[in-house]
Design brief:
Elements lengths: L1 E2 L5 E3 L2 E2 H6 L16 E5 H13 L6 E6 L6 H9 L3 E4 L2 H9 L7 E3 L6 H9 L7 E4 L4 H11 L4 E8 L4 H4 L16 E2 L3 H10 L4 E7 L9 H18 L7 E3 L16 H14 L6 E4 L3 H4 L3 E13 L2 E9 L8 H5 L5 E3 L8 E7 L8 E8 L5 E4 L20 E6 L2 E6 L4 H8 L1
Parallel strand pairs: 4-20, 5-6, 5-13, 6-7, 7-8, 8-9, 9-10, 9-11, 11-12, 12-13, 15-17
Antiparallel strand pairs: 1-2, 2-3, 4-14, 14-15, 14-19, 16-19, 17-18, 20-21
Helix pairs in contact: 2-3, 5-6, 9-10
Bound molecules: pyridoxal-5'-phosphate (PLP).
The site of pyridoxal-5'-phosphate (PLP) has 17 residues, from helix 11.
Amino acid sequence: MTRLPSGELALGGVPLGDLSRQSAEVGGDAGARVGTPTYVYDLDGMAREARELEDAFEGTPHLVAFAVKANSAGPIVRALVAEGCGADVVSGAELLLAMRCGVSPERLVYSGVAKRDDELDLAIGVGDAGIRAINVESVEEIPRIAARAAAQGRVARVTLRINPGVDADELDTHSYIATGHDEAKFGVPLPSVADAVAALDAARSNVHLVGVTSHAGSQLTSVEAYLASARAVFETAKSLRPRFALEFVDTGGGFGIDYGDGCPVRPADFIRAARAAQREHGLGDLALYCEPGRALVGAHGVLLAKVIQRKIAAGEPTRRWLMIDAGMNDLMRPALYQARHRIVPVVMEAGARLLPFRVVGPVCESSDDFGVHDLPEGDVAEVALLDAGAYGYSMSSRYNGRPLPAEAFLRGGVVAALHPRKPITDWVDDRR
Ligand SMILES: Cc1ncc(COP(=O)(O)O)c(C=O)c1O
């Protein structure tokens, strides 16, 4: 993200004002209009993130399984697959999408606390031998997987997702995205691992344990919390090893990004620390998997929005709102867990005086509120909500009859693909 000398914001070398106001040439179609609200993504920036993370493994056996939930747009998944990523999916639909985008079954892992039978059937049945691993999240899931595999005459490969029981305060992230503490629904609690082992033993003819995994939480900004969870994975793997032919350990995703308050660590730092701890536990011969979502895509996407109008309370000049055409349905993170995205004008006039405005969307909810931001006192036509590449579009909804936002994908300084906004009549037709 850069500010050009003209005052215009640019992403991936493309001036964003041009993009939202004019027709962009997309694959030779000069008539495709981008408009607003639109997510704009820099595929080159995302590919760079993937390469930097791949390099942190220094050629040792590994898999970077992109958490598709963070952003399931095909051009993004394909760009990351081209850099060597596999995928971590959480539904049958994500599994099919990842495969359509070029992820082979052997490079797919599947997490989720409540997978349906048809989703398990899909994971077990794809390709020659099913996906790389289904992450088992409860003791109760093991006989279910065994039965589904037996029905297909197959052996399902699974990992044991433990709940490492890290202290929730130590995770230092919003409670809605902290997953590795005792109260969370995710993973097999450490005291239940013995029961899981018994269930795995009983299911040996149809279920093979190939790895141990955990995911501590998302938007972690220190290596310590990640390592606490990783160590629990390594200790569990060590204890299971004589009994099961483990092939890998998976320390999950969760690498934080800088939303404006700083983030002192890079994804590669988490991996270097995890690799060192893996070796200390005598597990250096196993492959190391990780499941990053946000860190690969978050910083390389913005949400462009048009300013609809401003509103200033009479006699209360400090009560100022800037109303934009993107709402909580388009970017849910602020309403869902008080996340803050920086908001800046797409074109910054030189010498503009900045005043605090509360930026809100059109949705009929008080939580449709993007917070207070310093913005020019004078007219602003468009704004960009920064760092919106992860958990933005993928969480969007059609609440209030609003069409899903458009998405523009930039590569090499041009719009490489465009997913246009659907007409409002689509919603009317679907709902009537
Ligand atoms: C099991 C699992 N893996 C990976 C991720 C991706 O997390 P992040 O986007 O923080 O890297 C999540 C996110 O919730 C998850 O639950």
